[in-house]
Amino acid sequence: MPAESPARTPPHAAAHYPHPHELARRALLAFLLTFILARISVFLIMARSIPNLYLFLGSTHVHHLNYGIFLLAAVGAYTLMARPGPAAIRRAAFLYGIAMALTFDEFGMWLHLGGSYWQRASVDATIVVAGVFALIAYARSIEHLEAKHKRAFFVLGVALLAFAWALYDASVRIGTEAGPRLRDLEQASSP
Question: Residue 5 domain-assigned?
C-alpha cells in the first residue's frame, strides 16, 4: 500500500497565501490590543470599577497566562495539522497574537511561580515580544536585504537582546521596591 503524500498547497492558492510580514502585522495588532485590554481590565477590577472577572477554582486564581497557553497549543495544533487556507491562516495569526499577549503579560510568573502579577519582567517581556513581532512585520524580506541592511538588522537584533537583558535586570531591582505595595493591592482585589 503506497504511503499517502502530504497535502500540498495548490499553485493557484500559493499566490494568495499571506506573506509572513502580513501575518506578523496581524499578530502584532492582536498582541498589542490584548495586552492593553488585559492591563486595563486588571486595573479596573482592582479599582473595583468593574465586577471581579477573575476565574477562581476553589481558592486558586486561574491567571490569564493559562488561557494563553491553551490558545497557543490550539493554534499551533491547528496550523500544523489542519493546513489552513489563506483566510484561516490570517485568523490563526490574530489568535496567535492574542495567545502570546495573554501568556507574556504574566511572564514574571513563569520566572517566579506564585509571584505577583505586578512583576516588571512581564511588561519587559511584552515589550521585547512586540519588538520582535514589529521587526518581522515591518523589516524587508531577508532575501532582499543588501549587506548594509543585514548589518543594521544584526545590530538592531543585538540591541534588542541587550535591551531585554537591561530591562530584566532593572525589573528585578525595581520589583524589590515597588513589588510589595502592588502585591498588597492585588490581594485586596481578590475575594
Answer: no
Is 131 within a domain? yes
Are 96 and 53 in contact, with CB atoms under 8 Å apart?
Answer: no
In a domain, 183, yes or no: no
Positions of the chain with pLDDT under 50: 1-6, 10-12
The distance in angstroms from the start CA to the end CA of the chain is 62
CA distance 180 to 183: 5
Which residues is 61 bridged to in the sheet? 56
Given this model, what pLDDT does residue 72 score?
A: 95
| DSSP code for 62 | E
CA dist 66 and 180 (Å) reads 24
Q: How many structural domains does the chain have?
A: 1
